[in-house]
Structures are given as C-alpha cells and as structure tokens.
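PROTOCOL LOG
Step 1. Enter all chains and additional molecules of the complex.
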Amino acid sequence: MLEFKGVSRLVEGRVHIHATDLALQKGTMNVLLGPTLAGKTSLMRLMAGLDKPTTGTIHWDGRDVTGMRVQDRKVAMVYQQFINYPAMSVYDNIASPMRLMGISGAEIDRAVKGTAEMLKLTPFLQRKPLELSGGQQQRCALARALVKGAGLVLLDEPLANLDYKLREELRAEIPKIFEESGAIFVYATTEPEEALLLGGHTATLWEGRVTQFGATPQVYRQPADATTARVFSDPPMNFVTAVKNGAQITLGDVKAPVMGAMAALPDGTYRAGFRANHLTLDRESASAVAFPSTIIVTEITGSESFLHLHHGADRWVGLVHGVQHLAPGAQVNVWLDPAHVYLFGQDGRLVAPAPYAMAA
Amino acid sequence: MAQITLQNLAHSYSAAPKSDADYALKEMHHVWQDGGAYALLGASGCGKTTLLNIISGLVRPSHGRVLFGNTDVTDAPTAERNIAQVFQFPVVYDTMTVRDNLAFPLRNRGMDAGYIAGRVGQIAKMIGMEDKLDRKARGLTADAKQKISLGRGMVRQDVNAILFDEPLTVIDPHMKWELRTQLKALHRELGHTMIYVTHDQTEALTFADKVVVMHEGRVVQMGTPEELFETPAHTFVGYFIGSPGMNLLDAKIDGATAHIAGHAIPLGKNYAATGRTQIGIRPEFISLTTGTGLPFTLRRVEDVGRHRIVRGEAAGTPINIIAGEGEAIGADMTHVTFDAAKINVYADDWRINGAA
Amino acid sequence: MDKTQNNKAWFLVLPVLVLVAFSAVIPLMTVVNYSVQDTFGQNDFFWAGLSWFEDAISSDRLHEALWRQILFSVIILAIEVPLGIFIAMNMPKSGFWASLVLILMALPLLIPFNVVGTIWQIFGRGDIGLLGHTLDAMGIDYNYTNDPIDAWFTVIIMDVWHWTSLVALLAYAGLQSIPQAYYQAARIDQASRWSVFRYIELPKLQGVLLIAVLLRFMDSFMIYTEPFVVTGGGPGNSTTFLSIDLVKQATGQFDLGPAAAFSIIYFLVILLISWVFYTVMTNLDKQETF
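Step 2. Run joint prediction.
Step 3. Record the structure below.
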C-alpha cells in the first residue's frame, strides 16, 4: 500500500502540491485526472521518490520511505515520450531492467518473452525500437516497465503522443495488462473518457489539490464539488443559475419540476450543472424541458456532434448523437431532463446530486 | 481561386517502380471544387502528406497531372502556384513583430500600404491577436505563433488554395476547440478552397464539407461526414471513423440474407457478392437481447460516462456494442441483433450496393 | 534543492578539481604573488604593493598593444564571421560533396599553430614564397618584414585562412538545423533571397554565431604563436599584440612583476568581455523560451 500523509511540495515559494492525504491499495488502478499543470506529474514524481515532499511523509506497506532514493524503491515509470534505448533490440530493451538487477539469463528470457507476448511484441523482438510504429514503441516502453515486477508502476500520459486509433487500442489493453500484474498502477491523464475506460479509482486534481478520490464511476456520477465536476467532464460541464421555489426550480429562465434530492433543499439560489451529453435535440423524456438556444458552431466526431451554443448569456456545449449540420446562428430548442441536473451551493460544494446518478 | 484537378495522379519515390507497393500514392483521379473545405484523413504513412506536397509543389508527381482551374501546374514551382500553407509547427519570422509577420506576404507582392494595413487589421481581429500586433513574434507561446501562421496563410485574398498540414499538433488540447472553431468560421468568411491534412477524425469531420479518407496510398472514400459514418466505402473507413470502429463479421451472402456461423441475418436488401464477404455493423446499431439473434459472449463492460462499451465475441469475432447510460445489461443478455437498415456488405473490403 | 539524491557523485568530481587546481588555480595564484612583489634575481622578493598595476595601467606600451589587439580582433571578426556565413550558405547540403567539403574545411583547424605560422612565413617570402613572389612579379611592392601594412595584411590573411573554417562549420551546423518548412513558407510568401537570409537564417543562426564570435574573439585576443613565427611582432612594434608583448617582458627582459600585473589585467579584460557575451547569450535564450 502506498500512503501519502499530509504531503505537500513547494518550489521557490510556489505551491505545486497542497497538503495531500492519499492511500493507494495493492493491485488497484489509480487515475490522476486533471488538466495540464494541475499537479499530476508533480504528484507522480513524489510517488516515485524523484522529488522530496516539503512537508508530510510517504509510506510503502507501512514503512516510511520519504527520503528513500528512487533507485532503492521498486518503481517503474512510463512517459509521454516513447523512451527506449535506440541502439538495443526490443528484446534487450525489455531485458535491460532485469539485467541491471542481476537476474539469471533463463529467468530473464522467460520474463521477457512472457511480457512481450502480453503486449503483442513477440514478432518484433529482434527489431530496433525506431523501426517500430509509435504504438509499438510505447508498448516496448510499457513492457520494460512491467517486466521487472515493480510494486508501483507510474504512467504519465502514456498515450498522449499516439494517433487516436492506436490510443483506442492500447487504452482497451492497459486494464487487461494491469489485472495480470498485481502492482499499484498510477495513470495520469487529462481526458475524462480515458479515466472512465481505465476504471479503478480516480483522483481529480485541480491547481495542485486533490479535489476528490474514489471509485471512478462514483467520482464521475457524484462529484463532491463543481471543480471536480468540471475536471471530470469533457467537454466541460455546463452551468446555469438555478432558483428553487417549492416544487419548482428555475434554470436560467426556464421552469422545471424539482426531482430527487433537490426536494429536500431549502428554497434559494444554487448553481445547476449538467453534462454535455445530457442535452438532446429531441424530447427524450416526459420531464425534459426546452431551452431556446443559438448555435455558435457544430463539431462532428464521426458518430456524434458537439453543439456549441448560447442560452441567454450562458455558453453551453451539447454532445448529441449522429452527424448534425446546424448552421451557426440557427435557433434550436435543446432539451434537458432535470433528472440530469446537479445542484451546487454558492461555495461550489455539491448539495444535490443528479437524481439519475443516485438511481444508477 | 480555382478548382483543383488531380488527373491520373500517382507517385512513387523510387525511380523504377515495379509493383503496387512501390507507390506512395496509387493512381487517383479527383476534382476538388472551388471554395470547398476538404480534409485528408488517414493514419500516419498513408500518403496524405505526399498528396499535400504534390498539390503545394514540393513534390513532383511521377505520373499524371495537377491542374489549378484549367492551368497545368504539374511542373510549376511552389511560388508560382499562388497557394498558402500552414505547417505542423508554427513557422513565424521571429525577429518581426506580429504585424510585420502578417503583412509580409502582401509586402513581398508590392501591395499598397493602405490595403495592407486594412487587411492585417482584419486578419488580426479574426485570429484574436489585435492586442499583440506590435509584439515581437519571438516571445510568444506556441499557440499564439501558430495563430500567426494561420493568419499569414489567410492574409492574401487571391490564393488558389490554403493547405493545412496537421496545424493543431502543437496546440494545447483546450485551445484546439477554439482554433478548430475559428478555422471553420474563417472558411465561411473567406470562401477559399481549403485542404486540411490530419489523422484526427474530429478535426477532419468538423472542418470539412468533404472528407477524403486515405489508406495505404489510396483514396478509399471521399464523402460527407454522414456518408463516412453510415456507408463506409471500405472496411478501413468503417474502422477509422467512429470510436470504437465498425464491427466486421465474415459472412456468406445469399441474396437478402447473411449467414454467420449457421445463423441467418436479414439484410433488408439483395446483394450479389463474391470474394471474401463480410458484413459491417457499427456498435451503435447492435442491440443485446435475451434470446433472439446471434449468440454473444460478454467479456467486459466499459463505462465511458455518456454510454457504455460492451466488449465480447460473436461467431469467434470480437464485437463492440454501445449501450446507453441507463440501459441495464443483465447476465441473461446472451444474444445480439443487428439493425438491418444499418448493415453494410463488403466484398474484398469494398462496400457493395444492394438492390431493394 | 529538495530532490531525493545522494551526494556521492561529488567525489567523482574530485580528481578534476585537483587537476584544475594544479593547472590553473596554483599558477594563477603564483602570478598574483609575482604581481605585487619585486625581485632582483637570486630569488629575493620585495613587497611592491600595487605599483606594478599602476605602472601597467599608465604604460603607453600596454595601451598601444591593447589598441593593436582590439583592432586585430575587430578586423578578423569583421572578415571571418560574414565570410564564414557566406561559405556555409554555399556548402553542399548532403551527399559525397558535403562530406568532402566538410573535411577540406576542417583541415586548417587541424594544423598546429606554429606550423601555420611557418607556412605563411614561407608563403609570404619574396624570394621563395608563392604569395610573396607572385605579388612581386605583379609589380606590387610586398614585404612583410619591412612594411607594417604588409605585415598586418599577412597576419590577418593568415588568421582568416586558419579560422574562417570554424565559423563556417558552426554556421553550417546552424543552417542544417533550420526546418525545411521555413524555406517553403518563405517561397509561398514570395520572400526574396535577402529576406530569407535576414528574417529566417540570420535569426536562427543567432545562437551559433554568438558562440562563434565569442570563441573567435577570445582566441584572437590571445593570439601569440602565428604572428610570433611570421613577424616576431615587427616590423618595429607594429604587430606586437598583447601576448607577444607580455612574453617579451616576462622572458625577454625578465620583468616578472610588471609582466604578472600585465597578465592579470589581460586576464580580467578577457573575463569581462566573455562575461558580457555570456550575459547577452543567456538573455537571448530567456526571450526564446518565453
């Protein structure tokens, strides 16, 4: 188990990581999710022992390892860049960490072949890394990290430099690889979808602070505050002012029925948040309400379309099915079911989770 | 501005190409409409950069002609083609101010100062850099520099075409949204023929009216985003567009029925297919059932938030299914059915049309 | 630094520190020691305070040598830098010819300094030297041992011959690293050849050229062997540069104290100019990254 107790890090008077308590269990996948510069890499460097915390202590299986050098910890790291030894074959690349540990030849051979098989590198073992595609190069780097049986494997945006189709393939494979290894995996990413695909646990980061840590689907569906919700939504969560008055809640200037946990809240003003995919072009449920909006621009991903739109002064993004050609300036009604609305207090804390998320 | 015609175009980097494999670009014949927004989409190494370089004049095709309007420009150097190009990495003149950078292509062509000032102001406004016009380009961020490159590409009004070579590679993800949106708006405003090379499907489909999908040196489909999604002309398009891509199953085609591992699947139309026949169905159009359809073994369910990806196997082939956020997936869901209207039939990887 | 690290690595640096101490620090300290003492031989030394420095600073001899030295450095920089860039721009970019030209360019750099001096000393002679003889035959009165102008001409040509390659090779490496996209963009923008040079090549070469100028400046400011072999500092004192003058004083006249004071001033001048260069360069880098 890897434990952070009040760990913080300051560099030249600036806070990189605020005091953090975190416990990562053996055999779990842990995603660090946050935008660029949120502190993902800083946190990973602390975990690896590349940097020393300014305050707090780090424990590994109950032992204090705060000052221990990275060489003495069983840590493996994979970076965004494909880092391999260019002059060595793929086989030697994978074998290199074990050779450094002075393991016998036969054992190395067995481990290298097993790892290569798992990462579909067997046909390329005799090639040089630069003769491989980007995806294969990153597989080779992954294999090197996995082969030495490190207790802690740190992956810092390992797929960011790959074409999206390769990313899709490796992304589907990483959870399988992880299940077989039993190590603590820590995976940094900027993409909420990647976090969801990897499953396990997610820590959302924002400006050097862990805003929430828990089971990935739970953090996604029940974010503790507006910041977490924003970090864990791509495109970012849409917000609108909400005024609750009895059994009615006014979102912007559209009246909707109160549902679920909203009913228990005192009347007053809140911030309502909802995700892009919960805006629809058709009325898909009886409780949905229509928001007259103006299209700014439409983006098409292939199977879905992003609608950037204005509702009054608010700027929203909708993610709808199919290829939609809506011209800029077009007036449309977008529908939103209050069951998909989160309510946040004026301080940003979640006061009422979206009713659908409680049901799921 | 001009229509671009690629006449029996092919290109090989080797001097004496023998087989198909020696060609970086295999023979193609295409007309690119004046004022259109095109995207060249494909994985790295598919030949899209070669094609762009042929259009820009950096590479002379080994076979065929390139026409701008009615003029043969196959042998014309880049400078004579009157095109603009935006590169993968920002190309700016470091020691010049932003203003001078934008004015540079116009000054070199001897435009009058009043026109230049007006045009630069207009472009600066479009790319949102009015407040930085008098700063040196050297000190700016990669985003800002790339915006200058975009601006310099668009500052001339008389260009035949504007070429973009993966222009958003160095842009921070949250800025990509904004630039993509701006590019689209700029195309509408300026009406130039634009060709945009990328490996990113969202960039391609959002930007372009017509997307040209390339695979192994061949244009496998040139179509609208809807066509690429609904009726991929080649199995590669089915795989490449959409996430996850189209499911492909080997099938014996017999008129309006596909036979897969002893199960009959209705196709809705009549097909006459020979060679290696497959049916393609997108994950969006497969439903899980408790008993009807093809037997299905569930491997894992991935929650992507807005929907779930169900991964499993049917007839020995991996199958992905997209299920809605709230949809229940019980242990009794052991079969799958396909939406007949959404099935495409492929013979040797190419889509064939059915008859009603 | 609050990185988790061990400090054992410093022990590995120790041998270098010892070496540097013996080769640089101790000799330098000896010079400092000499510069504040006087001697009449027999290893008897007397405290002289800063008088040698006062003498040196007010000495016309040093002033003249210093101006000569600055003039020399400025002239060779003014020739070698533009010439080096020009050569670099016209060198083949790849293939057999590129390798051949690179080797040819590197040749002068590989020749020992006194050999360079000897080559030019003979080359310029009116009786047997190819250059001197040819010039004489063309009716030009050329004699580097009599005429100060001819002597300067010879020394400068020799330095240009010896060192332009260095500038050219550095500039060549700099030019090679400019991405093709820049040239293509310039063609699309219909930039003239001059614009390409002025707005793309020169700015991109800036860093490399600063290093070239710094290296050439320091080297030329300390030049000794080649002019000593060719002219011996003459005719008269016309090519007596700082280091030649220094050696004359120290070993010729055995004026250890004044020579030591002279060296320290010399050292400080070089240090000061190098520091200015360094500051300029690092500031440029800062601009670059921002």
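Step 4. Note key features.
Chain C has two domains: 10-49, 65-289.
The interface with chain B takes residues 179, 181-182, 184-185, 187-192, 195, 199-200, 202-204, 287-288, 290 of chain C (CB under 8 Å).
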